[in-house]
Design a protein that fits this description.
This is LysM domain-containing protein. By secondary structure, the chain is α+β, with helices and mostly antiparallel strands. The protein is 42% helix and 12% strand. The protein has a two-stranded antiparallel ribbon with strand order 1-2. The chain is globular.
């Protein structure tokens, strides 16, 4: 009985996790993010600085670039630009956009 309960619990977690990932993909959020926060770019900022120093490597450079539809040069950002930063990332992408 306990084994059946444990298996059922694990399966329900897997189903919920898959549903959350699908919902985030529909929202266009990378890295398994569940929401975003706004960040206003300051003079001298780069996506590397924002992802690694400000957000302590809890989000990847390419996760930010993808969320904000930043094209071929992921460090082409402007002072006073508002970026949406994905939060609660499960995986970090620092390389696919470089």
């Amino acid at each position: 009985m306990k084994v059946t309960t444990i298996i059922a619990a694990l399966l329900s977690v897997a189903v919920v996790d898959a549903q959350n990932n699908a919902q985030c993909r529909k929202l266009g959020l990378p890295c398994g993010a569940t929401k975003t926060v706004a960040y206003i770019v300051k003079k001298g900022d780069t996506l590397t600085h924002i992802a690694h120093d400000i957000y302590k490597r809890k989000v990847g450079i390419c996760d930010i670039a993808y969320t904000n539809h930043i094209g071929k040069n992921p460090n082409l950002i402007y002072e006073d630009q508002t970026l949406l930063i994905p939060t609660n990332c499960r995986t970090i992408d620092d390389s696919s956009c470089l």
